From TrEMBL:
<keyword id="KW-0496">Mitochondrion</keyword>
<dbReference type="InterPro" id="IPR019189">
    <property type="entry name" value="Ribosomal_mL41"/>
</dbReference>
<keyword id="KW-0687">Ribonucleoprotein</keyword>
<protein>
    <recommendedName>
        <fullName>Mitochondrial ribosomal protein L41</fullName>
    </recommendedName>
</protein>
<comment type="similarity">
    <text>Belongs to the mitochondrion-specific ribosomal protein mL41 family.</text>
</comment>
<keyword id="KW-0689">Ribosomal protein</keyword>
<dbReference type="GO" id="GO:0006412">
    <property type="term" value="P:translation"/>
</dbReference>
<dbReference type="GO" id="GO:0005762">
    <property type="term" value="C:mitochondrial large ribosomal subunit"/>
</dbReference>
<keyword id="KW-0809">Transit peptide</keyword>
<dbReference type="Pfam" id="PF09809">
    <property type="entry name" value="MRP-L27"/>
</dbReference>
<dbReference type="GO" id="GO:0003735">
    <property type="term" value="F:structural constituent of ribosome"/>
</dbReference>
Amino acid sequence: MLRGVFQLVTGVTRGLGGRKVRRRFPDVDEKHPKGKFFQESKQKRFGARTRRSGFLMQWSKVPNIVVPDLRDFELKPYVSEKAAKVFTPPLDSSTAKITERVTGDSTIVHSS
């Protein structure tokens, strides 16, 4: 009788399959981020997954980067006087077309 009670009590403390149930402490290191960041790149999520494996973008979470106008700015980027002069030839038409497709900037096209 006493042995049956012991087995009943240990059976309750063990989980399914006869394994011992242990309480784990929550992982607090960066390898287990709890949904705030992507594990590989540590970036915040800018939206949410939908039920059918889609992605709903939330534009309020996307950072807005404001770049000031630097046309009349007095300081220029530093370049050493000892730097070698580099000549970049103008782009040929095929390279210019590819660059225009990638960047969407048509001002790169040079006529030769």
